[in-house]
Write a structure and sequence with these properties.
The chain has helices at about 5-15, 20-25, 30-45, 60-85, 105-120, 130-140, 200-215, 225-235, 245-250, 280-295, and strands at about 50, 55, 95-100, 120-130, 145-150, 160-175, 185, 195, 220-225, 240-245, 255-260, 265-275. The chain is of the alpha/beta class. Helix 1 (about 5-15) crosses helix 2 (about 20-25). It comes from Agrobacterium pusense.
Length: about 300
């Protein structure tokens, strides 16, 4: 298995045909077919089904393509470092950071405003992913830093510094009747349209158990997969949501209010990095910028 084979897999999934892949990679169609056949032989897996000249990716191909992408990202990173070394370290340093998807809209730009001024020669690459994906990217050293929710098992070879905590809150539109309450219980949400984070996440499964224990059937109107979209739906009167106060504090600019949700749970958030790998000056500065922005975002105003 080699890098060219992984590039073929990635490009085939993107283009859907050997002709388009050959054009994109500057190779012949027969060359693409040969590289694909070699990859399938090396892996002892069928990655594409052949149907009347069409290539249909198997589920295994889709899963392995994610690993291939991480490998190719790591190779790109190595090539960039090699170029810097050839140029006497004259080229720009690259710092890569992983953040939850809910932090792309306001948090990340605000975090980077002062940083890009202080480090004009540094190129920043941001990855917006789930906690599971960020954990993996840090462990594989694809990214330098990763902000994630501390839940379940932390991967081997990863150090995590706790940098924030949150409490369960119910976010409602500011003119909603529930906004008049000092705290909101499960029973207060009976027959109330809810906007909840997707069912496959640990915190959602725990929340489902809270409703079940209270004997209340949640009226889920919308399921979504980011805290930012949940708060936006609430702001438009589509329902109420239950999230961590950490994320609720990022969306105080919306016409919503947060009230403690009872029974209350605590969430912890950390900054992950590979064990035994000292951060560069630029990466450490980005870590400090993230911590400062977290402190500002969580202040009660």
């Amino acid at each position: 298995m080699n890098i060219k084979q992984l590039e073929v897999l990635r490009t085939l999934l993107s283009t859907g045909s050997t002709i388009a892949t050959a054009k994109a990679m500057g190779l012949s169609q027969s060359g693409i077919s040969r590289l694909l056949a070699q990859l399938e032989a090396d892996l002892s897996l069928t990655l594409f089904a052949r149907d009347k000249g069409r290539l249909i990716p198997t589920p295994e191909a889709v899963l392995l393509a994610r690993d291939a992408e991480n490998v190719l990202l790591a190779v790109d990173r190595m090539s960039g470092h090699a170029e810097d070394l050839r140029n006497g370290a004259a080229g720009p340093e690259i710092v890569r950071i992983g953040l939850p998807s809910s932090m792309w809209e306001n948090f990340a730009p605000a975090m980077l405003i002062d940083y890009v001024r202080d480090f004009p020669g540094v190129r920043i690459e941001t990855f917006f992913e789930t906690t599971t994906a960020i954990n993996k990217l840090v462990g594989e050293r694809v990214i330098d830093l990763g902000f994630l929710r501390m839940e379940g098992e932390i991967g081997p070879g990863i150090d995590v510094e706790r940098v924030a905590t949150g409490k369960s809150v119910c976010v409602v539109r500011e003119d909603h009747p529930l906004a008049a309450l000092d705290e909101i219980t499960v029973k207060d949400l009976r027959n109330i349209p809810l906007v909840l984070i997707g069912r496959q996440r640990p915190n959602r499964m725990a929340l489902d158990q809270v409703f079940k224990k209270a004997g209340v059937k949640p009226m889920v109107k919308i399921e979504t997969h980011t805290n930012s979209s949940a708060c936006a739906y609430v702001a438009h009167g589509l329902g109420v949501t239950i999230i961590s106060s950490f994320y609720a504090n990022l969306y105080r600019h919306l016409p919503v209010v947060a009230r403690p949700f009872v029974p209350q749970a605590t969430q912890e958030f950390g900054l992950a990095r590979a064990s035994g790998a000292p951060l560069s000056i630029a990466a450490q500065a980005l870590s400090d910028a993230l911590k400062r922005k977290i402190q500002l975002s969580q202040k009660i105003v």
